[in-house]
Amino acid sequence: MKGKIKFYPALFGAIFLLAFSACKKESNEESMISFDPQKDSEEADGNFPYRWLSTYGFFEGDLKNLSPIEGLIPYEPASSLFTDYAHKSRFVWIPEGEKAKISGDELDLPEGSVLVKNFYYPEDFSKPTGERRIIETRLMIHQANGWEAFPYIWNDSQTDAILKVVGGETKVTYRDEKGKDQVINYLIPNKNQCKTCHNKNEKLDPLGVEVKHLNSEKKIKGESVNQLAYWANVGKLEGFLGENEHPKIVDYSNESLPLAERAKAYLDINCAHCHREEGPASTSGLFLGFDQTDPLKLGINKTPVAAGNGAGSFQFDIVPGKADESILIHRMKSTEVGVAMPEIGRTTIHKEGVELIRTWINSMDSSPN
Amino acid sequence: MKKSSSYPVLLLFILLIQACWETSHEQLFDSSLLPKRTAEEVEGVVEDFILAENNQTIEIGEGFFDLKTQLILDSKENITIKGAGMTKTVLSFRNLKTGGEGMKIVGKNITVEDLTIEDAPGDGIKAQHTDGLTLRKVHVTWTHGNKSKNGTYALYPVQCKNVMIDECIAAHSRDAGIYVGQSENIIVKNSLAYGNVAGIEIENCDNAEVFGNTARNNSGGILVFNLPGLPKSDGKGTKIYNNRIIENNHKNFATPMGEGPNGNTVTMIPPGSGVVLLAAKEVEVYDNEILRNKTVGVAVASYQITGFPTDAPNWSPYTSDIYIHDNAYDRSKGMPDLTHELGQLISLYNAHGKAKTQDIVYDGIFDEGRGKDIEGNPMNICISEPGIKDLLFTRFDLSQGEDDIQSYPDVAPFTQCNVSVETDVTEIASR
């Protein structure tokens, strides 16, 4: 009998080893090699996309300074999408003689418009305007047949960026606000992955360039202005009736604002691009837009549909008063592909975001009905 | 004293047998023997998907493709994606670090054929908002040792129209192997699903025919569900015929070992389930071989049995208008499941004696708006099996709560009717 019992640890050991070897990850050093493609000459012939970012002529002086030419307007959505703590500088180009137009709550940009989004990491987050490394620039170009997205990857010498439709992967190091060194395996999405987020009824669609997001203050040329008012002032917007006449969304990072509004603003910009009726996650019936008031659609006591691994050991998307039993939190604090939400654009945990949503869920009334 | 201390050991032993031994790692072939394609060649495939033009065929050659990013075909028409054969072209997503599925398809008239997809962290192939989708001779599997890390669905058309799944193989999904959700006009035929939690699942769909398939060695063979709170709220019209639904006794690995069911309904499926109808509407199950499923051949259940909230717009939790006839059954596998609540219900409370496999069970939950008495068959559940005298049928009465579960062997109230389930898939039969 004793002999038989002894057999078990060995068996378990073997199972453990098997399980361990099955889980071991292969290293991916090959994809981390330095990146310095040979620069060739290219003419700005109007046939988009160009191979090199510099060919568009959006910036003057050293490209890496990202100093916009006259007419390229900087913008910033009131609440911004978390992308692995990357900093973003965004610009919009509206062709000469053309205007953006507000109709209802929608902001329509004319054909020929270009959105320029640069993703970078300051070496030291406590000095956000100091030395930095630009990783990628995504262009969204409004062409005759709709919007199209093009990812440009910056070279190591930061002199230019090249169109790379298949995306890529790069290691990023920075020092965070608390002085701690961080390393991130930054994933540059492939061209068609852009539409994982930028998707409205299966058409590519801008995200932050919305009335509710741009009806907010930003420093432009040293002066704090309402962004839509600025666009109108420089003759690039029609239909603007004054800031109080249009919808607004709050900045979720502004702690002086009401919790529920901040939480819903966070979910709106980070989740609702998919989780809305016009988005790819409409399959789930979980709709996380700022204006959502139906508890079931918000995920309150709602069972998942196709969450698979993502459900963890939990039953409902949101359990009022119990953030740590809510699938929403489970998926926000995971980095495991297949579990983590959003599905792309995040390989680290957005601690501040998790904390915000956790506090919000815990503040909900947990008494039945 | 002695007896009581050996009980837990015995129970543990039974549970271990049930939980561990009935696990399949079967693979169709060993993909590691295929020549590995270079990083440039792999990138070429990614590029082909991105740069695809309408009316094009994307050919993928032989070999093992180690993909690090998703393959996405976006809003294109009349595209064929063609490998060199199921055992020749392998797209592996083992090293995918981001993205919900290996291959994603959106478009019109898209065909994928002759290839294998391995180890996608989320779903194997997801097709959404696609009108005209053919998946033919596509094989999707997971090769990890730890099956609770496997992806959700192997073949996953959702919100699609005119779907043909033909001669495909789906293995080891931790939810459903072949899952068609919120779609209309569907054929799933001549395919094989094994080693999954659910073999084939039709969920919130209209007008589907499932025939000529083999669903074996899953936890549940073929499922028809309607779940609440979805944009496509309640589906109806499914025919399930000429399928082999055999030995679906696999451990339910939708949650890791030691963890109970979560909010995913499939986590509640007891191993040993042949066909499960849950909140299903207008389903005909006939001419199938439903063999050696240890817990139950066909289970007819309402959504209330999950214990989850049942309040959702344009949706009913009840199963109604079901016609089960001319199927072959075999109870010889013995010993129903005890690891899941529904398994325990069947095993302990059926009308024929503890631990007896049941051929057909009905939870007896009914909509009082349709009738006051279950004997009047208000939900129109119709059973017409030629060998009914030799089959074990149980109708439960759960209305008095968990402490007073009643069950009845009398099938007569359900044998006096039939249902004419209307499906029409002629339009897609030629796809």
Automatic annotation (TrEMBL), chain A:
Is the keyword Signal assigned to this protein?
Answer: yes
Query: Which domain of life does the protein's organism represent?
Result: Bacteria
Tell me the first and last residues of the signal peptide: 1-24
Tell me which PROSITE patterns the record gives: PROKAR_LIPOPROTEIN
InterPro entries (UniProt xref): SO_2930-like_C (IPR022269)
Keyword tags: Signal
Q: Which NCBIfam families match?
A: chp_HNE_0200 (TIGR03806)
What is this protein's record name? Repeat protein (TIGR03806 family)
Automatic annotation (TrEMBL), chain B:
Q: Could you confirm whether the keyword Cell inner membrane appears in this record? A: no
For the Right handed beta helix domain, which residue ranges apply? 148-302
Sorted alphabetically, which InterPro entries does this protein's record hold? Answer: Beta_helix, PbH1, Pectin_lyas_fold, Pectin_lyase_fold/virulence, SO_2930-like_dom
| Protein name, as recorded | Right handed beta helix domain-containing protein
Signal peptide range:
1-19
Species of the source: Algoriphagus kandeliae
Transmembrane segment boundaries: none
Which terms are listed as keywords in the entry? Signal
Gene3D superfamilies attached to this UniProt entry: Single-stranded right-handed beta-helix, Pectin lyase-like
Record-linked PROSITE patterns: PROKAR_LIPOPROTEIN
